[in-house]
Amino acid sequence: MSIYRITRFTSSNTEKAVQMAQAAREEVAAVGADFIEMAFDDNGNGVVVARYPDAATMEAATSVAQRIFGGMVADGAIDGASIETWSADVKVTM
Question: Which residues of the chain have pLDDT under 70?
């Protein structure tokens, strides 16, 4: 079954974070994820939900994700101290 990686963070500049994510779209598409989506609420709280076909694909994508998030932190789009990552295997699909 699939595996999800959920990454939560805060952003003081969501427009910049979105622009940077869009600029990385081609590179992210090549990591083998089923999908990767980024969402924000009105208070700058963000989440990235990524579904991968298996743990090996997710782990192979880790360096790309770290580099992209690192760039967002370096450019002030995301607060690096706020990044929290969690992953889990799908056990049930309803």
Answer: none
Put residue 44 in one of left, alpha, beta given phi > 0 → left and psi -120 to 50 → alpha.
left
Q: How far is 19 from 24, CA to CA, in rounded Å? A: 9
23 lies in some domain: yes
| CA 91/CA 60 separation, integer angstroms | 22
d(CA 8, CA 43): 13
pLDDT at 28: 87
Q: How far apart are CA 54 and CA 41, in angstroms?
A: 29
The CATH number covering residue 42 comes to 3.30.70.100
In a domain, 93, yes or no: no
Supply φ then ψ for residue 42, to 5 degrees. -75, -5
Split into its structural domains, the chain has a count of 1
The distance of Cα 10 from the centroid of its chain, to the nearest Å, equals 12
- Domain span including residue 45: 3-88
